[in-house]
Amino acid sequence: MNNGEENKTPENFNSLSRDINNLKNELNSLNEEKEKWFNKKEELKQKVLGLIKEVKILRKSKDDSSVKIKKLKKERDNYNQVVKENISKLKITKPKDQKKRVNPNTIKADIEKLELKIETEVLSLNNEKKLMKEIKKLKKELKEIKQTSDDSSSISKQINEAKKRAEDLHKEIQKEAKESQNGYEKLNSISNEIKKINKEQEAAFDKFLEFKNKFIEKTKTLEDKLRKSVEYKKKPKVDKNRKKQSKDQKYIEEKAKNVEEKLKTGEKLTKEDLIVFQRE
């Protein structure tokens, strides 16, 4: 028996079958691990895509906030300019010498006294003209004071309104800036999270490739074993045919000897003997 025939013993065939079963079990385990890491990679990938969408929303919100803050600052600065200009106007309307400021009620009282004097006293024409001239001067002064007071009040009102609007806008800017800062911090946090998940995703992909390569190698080994198993299964049929042919040949040889003996002794040949004789 040569080495090829020795390797094809039943014991070796049983060992081969066990190897095939073990390989199938190993492949199942490797496939489970391979799919587990692939699914993990895909899960992390989807998580990253979700975070990227969130980042885009935050960036757009931050850009919109920057545009809004710029607009609010411009509007606030305009109101501050109105305040500055009106303060300058208010300074112009005030008398340069504060001591010359007269109470309008005092002027009104002086006018009433003079009018009463004209009505109740007997005055010379010259004195009456003087009093009338004085009354006219006081009334003009009162009118100017009233006008100045009205102008000052109007300007002061505009200043107060502009100041309040500027303050409200400043508060709105601060609120918007705070929200923008919070968005910026959240954006940084998500960016760091994406980096972390990407590393995990790369690690999961490496594990997937590791088990995939092992799976491929084991598959090749299994294919080789299965090919050998098929060869084993074919062998018994070949051996059986060979044994049958050998048995038939032996039978023919024995029959041929019997035919030769009959011919020597002169015995009558049967039909089967004739067939054997013809094969010879």
Order of helices and strands: HHHHH
Structural class: mainly alpha
Please give the largest β-sheet.
none
Strand content: under 5%
Radius of gyration: 60 Å
Give the overall silhouette: rod-shaped
Produce the secondary structure layout.
Blueprint: H1 3-6, H2 10-93, H3 104-120, H4 125-265, H5 271-279
Task: Describe the protein's architecture and organization.
- This protein has 280 residues and is mostly helical.
- Helix content is 91%, strand content 0%.
- The protein contains five helices and no strands.
- The protein has helices spanning 3-6, 10-93, 104-120, 125-265, 271-279.
- Helix 2 packs antiparallel against helix 4 (125-265).
- The longest helix has 141 residues, at 125-265.
- The two termini are 31 Å apart.
- The model is unreliable at 1-6 (pLDDT under 50).
